Amino acid sequence: MHAWPASEVPALPGQGRDLRIHDTATGGPVTLQPGPVARIYVCGITPYDATHMGHAATYNAFDLVQRVWLDTKRQVHYVQNVTDVDDPLLERAQRDDVDWVELAERETVLFREDMTALRMLPPRHYIGAVEAIPGIVPLVERLRDLGAAYELDGDVYFSVGSDPHFGEVSHLDAEAMRLLSAERGGDPDRPGKKNPLDPVLWLAARDGEPSWDGGSLGRGRPGWHIECVAIALDHLGMGFDVQGGGSDLAFPHHEMGASHAQVLTGEFPMAKAYVHAGMVALDGEKMSKSKGNLVFVSRLRRDGVDPAAIRLALLAHHYRSDWEWTDQVLQDAVARLGRWRSAVSRPDGPPADALVEEIRDALADDLDAPAALAAVDRWAALQQERGGEDTGAPGLVSRAVDALLGVAL
Known about the structure:
This protein is of the alpha/beta class and 409 residues long. Helices cover 44% and strands 15% of the residues. The chain is built from 13 helices and 14 strands. The strands form four sheets. The chain has a five-stranded parallel β-sheet, with helices on both faces. Strands 6-7-8-9 form a four-stranded antiparallel β-sheet. The longest helix is centred in the first third of the chain and has 19 residues, at 53-71. The protein is globular and about 75 Å long. The mean pLDDT is 96.
């Protein structure tokens, strides 16, 4: 599976700062100091509807992580998956009477178009669950051989008790885990499981559903968590720098994935930091496919909204905060984009070297994009009030906003 084209990232004078970011697993900030190549895995979409503002906010956060690292003169090895076979996708295809493969391909194409329009830097490896199956099967077999997996009516489950570090990503109690498991794709009430929280690794073939050769596992399809583990281990290995996604992935997805990987390799932790973006609401409720309260990037684009304004609307909120999408949020972003473009269109302006450092400092401090936007606002206001004599300033501001914030002026 291929990703989307990369927009050029302008080079800036000087060098960025190491990123200090909130780690869900420790509950506090950590300063990331990757080697020459920073490694990041971000969980991708299940392509039965793409791309709503909640998705866009999540991928915007991890795009900023990449941009901070690139500004430190590191390379970035970014991996993202596509869950192109799973219950929600199959259910939507059945509801709409379309082929599930066709639905997945159509929505993945739309997702790529949205990411391109928003200037999100693409992953080096963009891997679908289906194409990862040949690598998933041996991992499930190994977990079974290690005594960390068991069969139940043909399905294969992971035993969470096999990982002494289980629970150290989300730090939730058992009851909270059980409730979230039921809400987020698990089956805690299924009889016969060793532990209600045990997640499925391999789902035996069902009538009317797609299945693949699972070797000694029999025909079937993979569970959700093992999919990401197989892709991450194959392309990044253990101990990569950031595992990212929305805050609703901390449990069960990232918790279970970490346990799978740690039992498979005997190493800990799977990732040096677990970083989670907040949820976006509409009309007082979390934006989600199940609720149907979605604002789509593609629909905004079709309505003529500049993708740069959409990106500024996302950047106006700290990545970890939960916030609500409103018409006013978009109007404010459109107005801000207009002010910035007007400011950089002049032949000269106030010196901008200090502004570049302000943006760098803000982003290095737990991706504080609102502070970075406020710094650019101040420069633009000075430009509007009294201008300046630095002929290189408007160009430098334009390049910095593009390189560090992903907004093309």
